[in-house]
Write a structure and sequence with these properties.
- 0% of the residues lie in helices and 45% in strands.
- The protein has no helices and 26 strands.
- It has strands at 6-7, 18-19, 24-30, 40-46, 56-57, 65-71, 79-88, 91-94, 98-101, 107-109, 126-128, 132-133, 136-140, 154-156, 167-175, 183-188, 197-201, 206-211, 215-223, 230-237, 242-247, 250-256, 268-269, 271-272, 277-278, 280-289.
Length: 295
């Protein structure tokens, strides 16, 4: 048959999923046209599951390759189901399904040209030796307590009091240039005795979900691609004691654990004081949600 091999949004080679209470930016990547020209492609969505192109949809060009879709008209605090689609003379093919909830972030630090929270809810991030580069900030990976501490870097938010340990999501975009180091990307509880949730890139390039003194909870089969911007989302639900790590919208690992709140502060940073490592790479668009945005 004339089969199309599709990836739904988000994929490892598409733009990030950016969610507000009423809009989202999505997209997809068509990697095979089934032997016939792709005449239309886009995303479709509904609130019941298994959406088709007869539901709400976008049309974002034709042909194989990546595309970006701008979605609107969502109802706040509502859960939606989304798939990429592509159409050719044989019919319509669909990618795998994404489930997300439209929430507004508590804070949003774009980190494009300054350190402020554009929501206006919290003070600016603290940025130490992290120049603005490549539409983000560059972190050199030098640990603040290392012998080279004068050249060290750090970046962390103030205490975000609205964070709920019961239901939360952390999102950020990041890019790395090497994959042969232990590289913490997001560390929740950025102080010396915290580190209650986050993720890292391990020295073999795999991702890890971390919690409770940044212990490894789960590792991914996926390997981080270098020199490409990725979107990471970490979620935690205390009802199921489940933490999940999504990279570019795809769940790469999950684990069952209870967050240890003994010392936990509510700042988010890039340094793991438990093993003396600091993120090396670029980071931007840090968002924190009081709720689950990807399921």
């Amino acid at each position: 048959g004339d089969h199309r091999d599709l990836h739904s949004f988000p994929t490892r080679r598409s733009s990030d999923l950016s969610i507000t209470s009423t809009t989202a930016v999505s997209g997809g990547h068509i990697i095979y046209d089934g032997g016939a020209n792709i005449t239309a492609k886009g995303v479709c969505w509904n609130i019941t599951g298994a959406p088709t192109n007869t539901d709400n949809n976008t049309t974002d060009g034709s042909g194989i390759g990546s595309f970006i879709s701008n979605l609107s008209g969502f109802i706040p605090n509502t859960t939606y189901y989304l798939r990429a689609y592509a159409k050719n003379s044989a019919g319509v093919g669909y990618g795998n399904q994404l489930k997300f909830t439209c929430l507004n972030p508590i804070v949003h630090y774009p980190l494009i040209s300054d350190a402020r929270d554009i929501k206006g809810n919290y003070p600016a991030m603290v940025l130490i030796n992290t120049p603005f580069m490549n539409n983000g900030i560059y972190c050199n990976g030098i640990y603040v307590l290392s012998p080279d501490s004068l050249n060290s870097c750090n970046a962390y938010t103030p205490d975000i009091s609205q964070i709920s340990y019961d239901s939360l999501s952390f999102c950020s975009e990041f890019m790395v240039e090497i994959n042969n180091i232990i590289n913490p990307v997001i560390v929740a509880g950025a102080g010396y005795f915290d580190r209650w949730l986050g993720f890292a890139i391990l020295s073999d390039g795999h991702y890890s979900l971390n919690a409770n003194n940044f212990s490894v909870i789960a590792e991914s089969y996926d390997i981080c691609s270098i020199n490409v911007w990725h979107t990471a989302t970490i979620t935690y639900n205390s009802v199921t004691s489940s933490g999940k790590l999504f990279i570019d919208g795809l769940k790469v690992c999950e684990g069952i654990f209870v967050i240890d709140k003994t010392h936990a502060d509510k700042s988010i940073g890039i340094t793991n004081f438990s093993n003396g490592t600091t993120f090396k790479g670029y980071i931007r668009n840090i968002k924190i949600y009081s709720g689950i945005v990807i399921h």
